[in-house]
Amino acid sequence: MKTVFVVLGTLINFVNADTFSDFEKEYEKSYEDDYEIEDAKQSYDMNCAFIAIINSRSGQRYKLGLNEFADKGFDKFKEESLGAKSPSSSSDRGNKVTFSSNSNSNIQLIQAEGGIGNYTPVTAPPAVDYRNYSLAILNQKNCGSCWAFTALGVLESRMTILNPLYNTVLSEQYLLDCDTRDYACNGGWPMNALNWIFQSGGNSVPAMTSYQYFGFKTKCRTVTKIPMNIIATIQNYTAGNEGTMKQIVANVGPVAVVVSVTSFFQLYKTGIFYDATCNSNCGSVNHAVIIVGYGTDPVTNLDYWIVKNS
């Protein structure tokens, strides 16, 4: 693949709200005081104007729209809803670490940066779609916990590929409360979370039904956990080499990646997303998502990645 194009699988519902009052009702918004209401209104008006400008562009490949984030400026959106926090130590970004368990299955969990995992490659087909092996699309709320959703989403997908009857949604709240390598709603790194699960977390995670998600850190609790009965090789992958990533997705399965989110992404609605302003000048990565497939649009002939977002 020559260029990154993304189709987002996302929880967000879009509406054609005519007024800020309609928006408040649709998304059940509440604000603490008049100052916060006025700030939300101003952000809403600016975002409405921004949507109209972008959607009116000739040849626009994707559309923006009102969503639950339309009452926030981009800085506030980044602060509250993004959470990929790169470890200060390069070693913490993820060396190759192999874990043992009571299964003969071998899996690769790949995250952008580093080397290439060990697998026996086959020719990558023109399109791959693992959405049927992906469980519920969840909302991380106003919490920078994308790292937890990404780490567990990859595990859930792999467990489903190995066993199509597997249908247990794992608990991100457990990672917020108990993972000592990351920072709960203040951000984290998917690789750290995966390493913690296999090294310190007993190679097991509770189900969400027994460890409910709140979207803020609480006390770490002891509950029954589900064993991750796999041998997991956690390996990094070199950012920018999309041909390699395509091979890994085709041969291994869903891949955890960290990306740099811009204001265009905040209000994404539909289409093949491509931010032409984001080449080498996007700044540091700030959000973790899961690549669950790829393909080529038959109308535009554009290559794209299918991404699961939280």
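[next item in queue]
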Amino acid sequence: MFKKIMLKLVRIYQLVISPLMGPNCRYYPTCSAYAIEAINKHGAIRGGWMATRRIGRCHPFCAGGYDPVPLTEAEKIQRTREILQTENSDCDCSQHKR
């Protein structure tokens, strides 16, 4: 429920307030897109905190640039498994075969 409310608030910002302010975000993805992804990926509390920290970093004195939402623990584990499988698939020794 809280997650849906937060997502609605960000979406209202995107549709109503953001067009009036113009393209000022120094990061990619934009802070509002980051907020939506963070809330969807990490939940209302952690994702909301991540979005708040990101908005705090977005000011005229920061360099900006590419700043993706961090992976969840499950995504990190899956990515590690994929990398290990790729590395081990090139090996012909029986040690890595399962």
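[queue empty]
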